[in-house]
Amino acid sequence: MSSNQPRQTWSNRLTYILTVAGATVGFGATWRFPYLVGENGGGAYVFLFCIAMLIIGIPMILVENVIGRRKGVNALDAFGGTMNGKPVAKVWKLVGWMGLLGAFGIMAYYMVLGGWVISYIVNIIGGNLDISSPVSGEVTKSFFTEHIENSPWEIAFYTFLFVVVNQWILVKGVIGGIEKAAKYLMPLLFLFLIAMVVRNVTLPGAMEGITFYLKPDFSKITAELFVFVLGQVFFALSLGFGVMITLSSYLDKNEIWFRRP
Questions:
Q1: pLDDT tens, position by position, 152-174
Q2: Angle formed at CA 134 by CA 30 and CA 132, multiple of 5 degrees
Q3: What's the half-sphere exposure (Cβ side, CA atoms, 13 Å) at 166?
Q4: How far apart are CA 119 and CA 126, in angstroms?
Q5: How many Cα atoms are found within 13 Å in the side-chain-facing hemisphere of 257?
Q6: Quick count: other Cβ atoms within 10 Å of Cβ 19?
Q7: In angstroms, how far is the first alpha carbon of the chain from the final one?
């Protein structure tokens, strides 16, 4: 896009909200979070997570939203230029660079998981995995511990496919690519989440799992656990990577989102 052209804006609020949800509801919420809950005391972890989300997570994501909408530029330049008519100290540009490097690190992590998941889905569709059996958990565990290790070229291919699909969407831009993809992929994700919840609560021993998840054992709460929780809050909300700053920079500054009563 030429520098003399006006910056594009989201088509409507819903697509922006769906895209933000897509940036926050991912592997961190559907895969990493349940694992950490199981490893760190169940309800105690959930209790601390909710507190950290309210005190740290939500305020920080709102701050990134304000920065992006106010500056209207990419996540790197958002920490430069001027603010309230005064030049911003150049040292703040390091914050933008740190977020950019962090995003590259997260992508290296996500593209590998993406390859695993695509391979998993393809093997289910191809009939190589039977996840409807009573021992489906063991089947899945065996897949991720043995099949992935023994099939490096297959995983490499699906990882490459994952990267190509993401590149195809990203080169179309935030509005032409990400927004259009979010319109279809996010409702599909929510349907999958509902199906997953229904499936899980109908499995044998589901109530024991729900009790473990919701009933906190306060003896499990430690300073180390809070550090784990804080890391999950940053990971789940994509804080510090410039994601929210970038997405919010495409908001229409003249649109009023909150009206006083």
A1: 898 899 999 999 998 998 888 87
A2: 65
A3: 13
A4: 10
A5: 12
A6: 23
A7: 39
**Rounded to an integer, what distance in angstroms lies between the CA atom of residue 20 and that of residue 64?**
12
The arithmetic mean of pLDDT across residues 82-100, rounded, is 78
Stretch 80-89: mean pLDDT = 72
> What pLDDT does residue 133 have?
61
The span from the CA of 177 to the CA of 261, in Å, is: 36
CA distances from 46 to 200, 219, 235, 244, 257 (A): 18, 14, 15, 24, 31
Mean pLDDT of the chain: 80
Long-range contacts of 69-76 (CB under 8 A, 24+ apart): 69/248, 69/249, 69/251, 69/253, 71/245, 71/249, 72/7, 72/249, 72/253, 73/249, 74/242, 74/246, 74/249, 75/99, 75/100, 75/241, 75/242, 75/243, 75/245, 75/246, 75/249, 76/100, 76/242
Give pLDDT tens digits for 214-245.
Answer: 887 777 778 888 888 888 888 778 788 888 88
Tokens of 8: 């594009």
CA-CA distance, 122 to 176, in Å (whole number)? 28
